[in-house]
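Progress against Task 2.4 (sequence-to-structure conversion) is shown through the following example record, which the project officer requested during the mid-term review.
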Amino acid sequence: MSQQTPVSRVVEPWRAWMKRWPTPHSLALADSAEVLRAWGSLGYPRRALRLLDCARTIDHEHGGMLPVGVDALRELPGIGDYTAAAVANFAQEQKACVLDTNIRRVLTRVLDAKASPTASVTKRDRARFGALVPASAESSRIWNEGVMELGALVCRARNPRCEACPLAEQCAWLKAGRPGLGERTTRPQGYEGTDRQIRGRILKTLREGGEATVGFLERASGAEPERFTRLLADLLAEGFVSQSAGGLITLGAGTRAEGTATSA
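Structure tokens generated for the chain above:
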């Protein structure tokens, strides 16, 4: 839930979620409409469906128990390298290198004299950064937590506190005069007027009002007809919504009528 979403927005939905579905087995029994409604306005609802897929895989293939280790975790739906490493290290006491943005920023500055890491983790980075992690599981956890906090509180993206950094003497970036500080490497992702915003309006309308006609959804979306038709078709194909034999659109991947949606 907290991926790309501030923790302050996640706390209450997470508590409600865990009270309702405290185990993978309990979540595996839910349907997609229930899950999407519980997800509410957190954004990126594909994460909700991935959690459902993940719970069902754990329940059906692992006896309801989360598999242990980075490699096993990475095989689960919706689990990438970072999440697998974080769960293995922090929750399962397995050695792993948790390459979040903060850790990558610290190591990129100290080793490469660059202000910011690349957009994605390369195999080279994973190998050389991983080699720095202490051998024992406990020491690796402390290392990951320490470097992560160093990046969050001291080696910050925009206003680094180099005078307070314990790695200042070893930092190649600081010795080079902190090149690139303040330069924006990527543009922030916009939201207003995007397909994501229109999709969000469609899903919000169904969460709040239940089933709806295609025409009603089109008007609620505020999108032009061609764009709305394309986005609704995507939502149908991805299992976010379904269409009944009578043509009504409902939340979740239910039984869908043959053919494509048409305005009503």
